[in-house]
User: Fold this.
Amino acid sequence: MTDHHEPVPFMDLVTPHREMEEELLEVVRQALRSARFVGGPQLEGFEEEFADFCEAPFCVGLSNGTDALRLALIAAGVGPGDAVITVPFTFFATVEAIWQAGAAVEWVDIDLSTFNMCPARLEQLCRDQCRRQDDGRLVSLRSGRTVKAIVPVHLYGQPADMDAILDVARSNGLMVVEDAAQAHGARYCSKQHQGWKRAGSMGLAGSFSFYPGKNLGACGEAGALITQDAELARKARMLRDHGQPEKYFHQMEGYNARLDAIQAGFLRIKLRRLEEWNRQRRRLAKRYDQLLEGIDEVVTPSEPSWAQSVYHLYVIRASRRDALARRLAEDGISTGLHYPLPLHLQKACAHLGCKEGDFPASEQAARQVLSLPFYPGMLPEQQERVVGLVREFAASPTVLTGTRP
Assistant:
C-alpha cells in the first residue's frame, strides 16, 4: 500500500527503465562494439517497425519532434510565401516548425470538449478569411500569403476529427500534415478510410516526438515522420542529412537532423511494449473518469465514439485550477499545466497582432486545464488519493472568481 503522505509523482520514468535496463545497455554495447553510431541496422530496423506500427509505408527517423514536423512541411513543398493553418492551443514547437519552414501561421480555434482543431471554425476560416485566386489557390486576407497546408494537433493523445478536416482540405486544395507528437498509437475511426486508422497516417505526413516523457519515449531527443508518399520520404531523408542522397553529393540545402543509432535501438525495445503501456493508460483514464464522476467543479476528458485516445496526459478542466493545483502540491501531488498561455498571446507571437478574446476556446482551456499524475504502473491507491483531495477541494467553500468550466 502507498503511504498516505508519500508524494505522488506526475510521471514515473525511473521504474520502466530499471525494468528494461539490461536490454537498453545491450544496445549501447552493440554500438560500442560495432562503432555504428549513425544510421545502420538499428535506424533501419526502427523505421521499418514504426512504419508497420503506424500502418504507413514509410518512416524517416529524425533528431526530434520539431524537426519531424519542420522537415515534413518542407518536404511537402511548404516554404516562404506560404501560410499554414494550425491551432493556438498546442506546444510552441508546432508553430516553430511552421515558421522554420518559411511559412506564416494562420490560427483556428479548438473545440473545447476535445482540445483539438474545430472543423467548423476551420471551414469558416477558409470561407470568410481567405480569397480564392483565379488559379484556385487560397490566399489569406490577413497575411496575403498562399495557404498551403493544415496542421491538426492530436493533443494529449486524442485524435482530431480527421474526416472533417480532410474534407475541408480537399475542398480548398490544401495538404494536411498531422502533428502526432503526443499520439503514438492513437486511433481514429474514419468513414473515408472505412475503418480505424492510426494517428499520423491519414494526412500527407504525420510527425512524432520521442521526447522521454512521451508514450513512446527515447532516452534523450528523437523524432520521426511517417508518410504514404514515397517522394516525400525520399526528400525528408535527404533533408535530414545535409541534402545528400549519397555521401558528399548534395542535391539541396539540408539540415543535420539525423536520429542516432543508439536512440533508434532504445526505441525498438520500447516499441514492443507500447501497446500494453497504451492499454494501461486507457484503463487508468477510465478509472479516473469513474472516480471523478459527480464532482461538479471538474470536467473530465471527452472521448468521442470515433476516437481511441492513448492518453499521453490525463487533463481535467477546473474553474479554480490554480488553487486546486496548489492544494494538491501541498499534499505532495505533482500536476502539470499543458498549457498555461495559448500561442497567439505569447510574446514570441506578438508580431501577429492577436489579442485576448480572438480565440476564446483556446483561452478558456489555458485558464482551466490541469494535468493530473498519470503513467503506466500508477497504483489504484495513488489515483484514489489524488481524487480524494480533488473531491475535498471541490467541497470547500470559496469565493467565486470565474465561470464554471
Notes: The chain has two domains: 16-269, 275-395. The two ends are 34 Å apart (CA to CA).
